[in-house]
Design brief:
This protein is an alpha+beta fold. Helix content is 19%, strand content 41%. It has 5 helices and 20 strands. It has a 20-stranded mixed β-sheet that branches.
Amino acid sequence: MLQTTYIRCHGSGNRFLLLDAAAEPRLEALADRPDLIRRLCRIDGPADGLLLTVRRDERFGMRMFNTDGSEAEMCGNGIRCVARSVAERYLPDAERFELLSGGRPYPIRREEPLFEGIPTYRVDLPIRLATADFPPSLDAPEGFVGRPIEALDPALRFTYVNPGNPHLAAAVERIDTDRLVRLGERVKELPALFPRGINVSLFVPCGGQEIYTATYERGVGLTSSCGTAMTSASTAACFLQYCRTDLPIRVRNSGGMVRCCCRRTEAGIVTSLSGNATFEADGLLRIDPETACVELLGRTTLRTEEIDRYRRFYESVQR
């Protein structure tokens, strides 16, 4: 039997249960129990995933699990929440530090609030244009940018971007969520093309340095927000010349808004993702790994001021 505290949190409306495996290493055993992960994601209202803060010697990191129990290599919204937790619990004086995710280090920095004291963090995401997740049959040695994938949707022009996990992004005139769901489900029917699945996003160029995104996330489904998807869509928008590199891009979605900036560096393309890390509630759990039973102990304690601040921010960006 294991008893542990948790934080219910979100980045841009992408909600998670956050557990501290740096303080309680036995929590990492959850990685082998997708049934427990699925239950944890439902224990305090529906969550989009489970976050674990982990420690590797003197370094901190994140492990992120989708609602189906599968592990994601990276989560742009989740890593900001983990960054805040690490900063507050372990590195109170650090303005900049690194977090590991999927075996890779990611630079983190604390930033000025997006809105009225909302805790805001930035992560720099190196962009890869060709990885093992990308189908070799879609030959694109210099990057797959603005090209059709007939088996997926012949009318769309997709761009492949990997900021830690694989994404396809396509520009559209308006977001059609039914079409997006069909794309996400179609991916599952194409194991020869996408053996490990792939995240799919549609984005609307809004003029200037602004886009609006929606995402079907592998292992989750249609989601209000996905940090690496917003990073990928803003990077694709720069590749396709809807937006300019080296300037902030305002990226809105149904969960809120983040800022991205795509830069070409000597080390390659790096896109930064800056957004909120909001802690909504604190609670206590009991987990029985033997029976896969999960139980809330007592009531959660709401952080009403934080919830209120984000609500006001959300209303301001959705107008």
